[in-house]
Amino acid sequence: DMDLIKRASHMIRKSSKTFVLTGAGISTESGIPDFRSPNTGLWENIDPMEALSTTVLYNYPKKFYSQGYKILLDMKDAKPNRAHYVLAEMERMGFISGIITQNIDNLHQKSGSQYVLEVHGNTREGSCINCGKKVDLDVLTEKVNNNEIPPRCDNCHGILRPDVIMFGDMLPEDFNIALEEVENGDLLIVIGSSLVVAPVNYLPQMAKKLIIINSDSTAMDFCADLIINESASAALEAILYELKVE
Ligand code: NAD
Predict the structure, then answer these.
(1) To which CATH superfamily is domain 1-32+80-120+171-246 assigned?
(2) Is 84 near ligand 1, meaning CB less than 6 Å away?
(3) pLDDT one-digit tens code per residue, 130-170
(4) Which PROSITE patterns is this protein grouped with (predicted)?
(5) Is 236 helix (H, G, I), strand (E, B) or coil?
(6) What's the complex ipTM?
(7) How far apart (Å, rounded) are the C-alpha atoms in residues 153 and 132?
(8) Which of 29, 30, 35, 76 has most ligand 1 atoms within 8 Å of its beta carbon, as the pocket-test mutant?
(9) Of the residues 20, 34, 50, 52, which should be mutated to test ligand 1's pocket, given the most ligand atoms within 8 Å of the CB?
(10) 120 is annotated as an active-site residue
């Protein structure tokens, strides 16, 4: 709908500090399944809320490394899609100040975005729960492949874990920074998130102005100033075009 696209680009032009909040839906076009699209059936045998929980990570490490960990590794080779590239370009052009992402797939960084707050962690690193030493995630993978489950720290023999926020974990410092950025900003654009996961879904409720871009409805549609029900790439390409010609 061209009218919605025009209104969105107008709101972006008027705003002096715009942040973007992304969820799994921005990466489905890169081949990474999300958790809550209707009828995808991709998680038929695995409940991600269980497989990626602290309970399974700490109490059933064999189960964690045969299920949840595989979901994480599957993201490592994905490539950014047009939606990620448009956001990187919008940052270069000065239309957005940064990205807050719930994703752990590294695709915003791969597409060239500079300021990215990762509120659910990342799949690049792991760390020791005892001494805090950080290691490349490949170090964990190698140990797991050598049947060292759970993988242990070379420093202190503590347990190594991925730096991904599991269900049951506290959020990292990036989330506190995100709260401040949204509080000080004047526009938030949410892209590809069902917005059912707290506390990240506080962010759209705090935003002064809110645009939601999502294939279908979200839990926070009631507080949006503008809703665009389209794919992330189509909507963002149209908005970028409009920003360039306006
Ligand atoms: P979600 O799965 O709950 O919601 C995704 C939303 O995106 C759905 O409402 C869906 O309709 C919409 N969507 C799907 N494809 C789209 C497209 N091409 N364009 C626009 N909208 C589209 O995702 P969430 O809200 O991010 O919550 C899932 C949690 O699981 C997150 O916290 C995240 O950390 C994690 N997760 C991450 C990844 C990833 O890193 N790529 C993938 C799956 C899950």
Answers:
(1) TPP-binding domain (3.40.50.1220)
(2) no
(3) 999 999 999 999 999 999 999 999 999 999 999 999 999 99
(4) SIRTUIN (PS50305)
(5) helix
(6) 0.93
(7) 9
(8) 35
(9) 34
(10) yes
